[in-house]
Design goal:
120 residues, Arc Repressor Mutant, subunit A, 6 helices, elongated
Amino acid sequence: MGTYQLGEMETRFAEIIWENEPMTSMELAQRAEKAFGWKKSTSYTVLKRLCEKGLFKNDKTIVTALVSREEYNANRSEQFVEETFEGSLPAFLAAFLGKRKLTPEQAEELHRMVEEYREE
């Protein structure tokens, strides 16, 4: 999967697709008009840009995702940790937690997750 840099409005537009796919490009334009006040041409321009980035497909006016919301969020999270913490997940977690304490339940859940993803 590539890296994706989306602005705020592109992300909000993408959310409409993820929540309603498959949908026609006309339906998408109508939803964007209602949500953002966009003209149809603006929606089609943004859709084309997102398709060129490899996130979505507009095939015979039917819009579908090539990358799920979960995959997109995972990719962005990985990029953030890489760019901000030199790829160090422990450094990210330490910064995220700051002075907060974990509840026993949260600590146990994190422990289970670490064990699930541990390399053998």
